[in-house]
Design a protein that fits this description.
Elements (H helix, E strand, L loop, with lengths): L2 H14 L15 H13 L12 H15 L2 H6 L2 H18 L5 E4 L2 H7 L3 E5 L8 E8 L3 H16 L4 E7 L7 E6 L1 E5 L2 H14 L6 H27 L9 H10 L1 H4 L4 H22 L16
Parallel strand pairs: 3-6
Antiparallel strand pairs: 1-2, 2-3, 4-5
Helix pairs in contact: 1-2, 3-6, 5-8, 9-12, 10-12
Length: 305
């Protein structure tokens, strides 16, 4: 799945390894090696200019102006701290190096989708025979609990309308010929600034992009918990037929399999959202079963909708 992408990233990193990098988007670290990693990710970040055959020029220009205006705002500059920016690259590196499985790809989103649609990157589980890949949008934050609640609230508002998160400027790693919109389940991954520094320091010390097993387990727990509660909300409010009796992720997945014929008869948007959440949760649960120290989030961590 990632062969072409890996080759491009490898070339970029070799080319930049000896450069005196000065940071990207106003961000830099003390490590030339880590700065080169940042630049590698920026080199594969989708740019609106790459979508001239997809969207009208005036629409792309309007989106670019909207992003520029937001970036000048005090709110954006206050929230986009060095820790916040670093966390996005740290977690992408963790995923890229097998944090969610060896065959799982990761693609940073465009600035527009980061800022306007609240998705920092997309993880893609490889396609099973006869099916599309499984996509999950990830929003990373180092902010306090209130920031996490705000981001979860955004997901919750979408679920009330059976909506997935929208990514406007997406280039599919598996199918580079596809450029355009992608709708995905969205999860929020919270990471403390101290943990970002710990993972970063480990990289600086070892010069290796080793996976942090504890963080890997915690990330899977967060993803599983949010996907579980999102899917349960969709079942209870748009599918019905006994969904209120479900509690565990396994019960919810089993329910969806047994009620597939009912789910397929719902409104197309409902069907797509339920199936997207179902497939995403199933993949994450598979990973959790083989990941040490990983437990499904408790009912107390349920997403408020």
């Amino acid at each position: 799945m990632r062969k072409g992408y890996d080759q491009q990233m490898g070339v970029e990193r070799r080319m930049m390894s000896d450069l005196d990098t000065r940071g990207v988007l106003g961000y830099a670290t003390e490590s030339v090696e880590f700065n080169s990693i940042i630049k590698s990710w920026e080199s594969v970040r989708p740019k609106p200019g790459d979508f001239k055959n997809v969207y009208p020029d005036n629409e792309i220009a309007t989106d670019a102006a909207s992003v520029a205006e937001i970036k000048r705002s005090a709110t954006y500059q206050r929230e986009k701290t060095r820790d916040q920016v670093a966390s996005e690259y740290v977690i992408m590196e963790q995923v890229y190096n097998g944090g969610l499985g060896e065959e799982v790809g990761v693609t940073p989103t465009s600035e527009y989708d980061d800022i306007k649609n609240g998705v920092d990157f997309v993880v893609a589980f490889p396609a099973e025979e006869g099916k599309d890949p499984v996509y999950i949008g990830v929003d990373v934050t180092t902010g306090p609990v209130i920031t996490i609640q705000k981001k979860l609230g955004r997901t919750a508002r979408g679920l009330k309308n059976s909506e997935l998160a929208n990514i406007k400027y997406y280039i599919d790693d598996e199918n580079p010929d596809y450029k355009g919109n992608l709708s995905v389940p969205r999860v929020v991954v919270g990471i403390e600034p101290e943990r970002v520094k710990q993972i970063y320091d480990n990289f600086i010390t070892s010069k290796k992009n080793d996976i942090d097993p504890q963080f890997q387990a915690e990330m899977l727990d967060e993803m599983a918990g949010q996907l579980k509660e999102g899917l349960l909300y969709l079942i209870e409010n748009f599918v019905g037929t006994g969904g209120e009796k479900l509690t565990t992720a396994e019960q919810i997945l089993d329910f969806c399999q047994k009620k597939q014929h009912i789910i397929e008869k719902r409104e197309p948007q409902v069907t797509k959202s339920v199936q997207s959440y179902f497939r995403a949760l199933a993949r994450v649960i598979e990973l959790k079963k083989i990941t040490p120290h990983s437990d499904v989030m408790s009912e107390g961590d349920r997403v408020a909708v």
